[in-house]
Amino acid sequence: MQKGFRRKYDDLNDHLEKLKKADLLWTIDQEINKDRHLHAFVRWGYVGDVGTVLNSNPKRAFLFTNVTDAQGRKYKGNCDVQVGGTAGSPAIYALSMGIEHKDEGLSELSQKIFDKWSHAFQHPIPAVEIPSEEAPVHEVVLTGDDLKGGAGKGLDTLPVPNNTPGWDTAPYFSAGLFVTLNPETNIQNISQNRCSLKASDRMTGMWLIQTNGGAHQNWAKYKERGEKMPVALIVGAPPSLQVVGPQKVPEYLDDMDVAGALAGAPYRKVKCKTIPLMVPADAQIIIEGWLDPQKLEMEAPFGESYGNMSVEEYNHSITVTAITRRKKAILTSMISQMAPSESGVIKQLNYSAIMLNHLKNTLYIRQVKDVALHGPMIGVSRFTVIVLQRNTPKTEIWRALEGATTFMRSVGKITVAVDEDINPNNVEEVLWAIAYRTDLMKSVKIEDHQANGHAPKLRDREWEAKIMIDATLHYDMPPVALPKREIMEEARVLWDKAGMPAVTPRWKWYGYSLGDWCEEWTKCADRAVNGDWLINGLRTARLVDTDAVGGPTAGVPREGVVRWNEKTGEVDYPPGFPLKDRFDTDE
């Protein structure tokens, strides 16, 4: 234990100030009912633009400073509520990770995120224990009678919002981080899972069995031992720890040490008041408790990130033994449910980074350039896109597809491999590649026995199938049918001069070659741009017999291209003209 050990990283208050300076925070000081309107208010900031993955995304975080509840209680001056401050948009997530992100696209940001996670996993910084009297999260301590009695006691003193008002059956901590301990290794795990209020001194936690995460594994060990399990819930973690919660961290690492590596400084930790766990000293709120692994409690419905309500099920019942907090605390909540959402962005960028790390550095598929897990509506874990270098061997393409679908038990129900010219974060481009670059008889593989994972429960069997699609170029194809880049850029200058509204491209905006092209056609195109198209008409003026080429739409082979000789002003014909290419038309 070190007395006087100073904090050298951002806590949540610092983070909110940085969001404000970056124009990424809305502060709402009008009265907002946390039971009915708070999350609905935030949702309006998301439904207006499905482009959660777009660089032009205008989404901001929300800080509510005048929260009330349906019973008329007021929390102003005691506890604010923040939503969307960890990953409300890629720009907000970059700030949480301490990454410079200005005008880059999502692929460039993903590479920076990949580099930072890789470094953190390889170079964790051990947390340092400080005394309780120096821990901001121990400014207020509630135990015993302060927790019992229902209304106005314990958990009921916190402005925990309803996340899906009209469907959820209780207020939920949706951004809380559960701290659990592996009793065999004494390594702590921190995981983000939903947590509902049941009484002023009781709550429930849902740790998804299907993903086989650390919290569930630790619970299984306590159950086998027949021992009660200590649990702490972190609410309002510093940003570099909040992003660790949904991440898949190697089991041999303490998550707080990984957060220190992301922050570039050791975390300050403190002993809990009533249970044998260590928690971040600079959190806003800590809820301590015990659960009996032999007992479960009915929990949910709750609106989940895969876009459906999770209906009632049996989950962990936690008896609260202490609540510690700052005098003026900030309770964090996460916009989840149907993507686009904050939970979608954080999982998308987290999972994409570790998937990329797995394919490149574990499977050593060096041709892998990028990985993107699609977020809007799908909720990340169902649709994966892998970007590979052009002309990657088929064996490596399929090794990447197989590796991506087996890395995490339930991620990759639909996995697609594409070339570098495809933006993996743009579904329209991915569908374009599937539509025109696949031979479905040999480009698609369907396999059984994929875990159902974080999704509506299957009613007909215990698992489902997965589909892998090789949508890379199988051979050279003609150029993308859009004006050339330099011409589009010239037109953009004219657009701006005309006073037109600012525009950020969402889809492909200029054409480029895919290999099936020749120099003569480039010369013809240049003449057309320069107004000399009449010359191109002279080049093609010699007509050919229909039967000689087999009929309309017969192609001209590259070795059979007619050339305009600029020196002589005449047409040069190849030997054997007219020639027909080997592609036939199916009439």
From TrEMBL:
Range of residues in the leader sequence: none
Molecular function terms, GO-annotated: carboxy-lyase activity
Residue span(s) of domain 3-octaprenyl-4-hydroxybenzoate carboxy-lyase-like Rift-related: 132-335
Protein name: UbiD family decarboxylase
Superkingdom to which the source organism belongs: Bacteria
GO cellular component entries: cytoplasm
Segments forming domain 3-octaprenyl-4-hydroxybenzoate carboxy-lyase-like C-terminal: 353-471
Organism: Enhydrobacter aerosaccus
InterPro entries hit by this protein: UbiD, UbiD-like_C, UbiD_Rift_dom
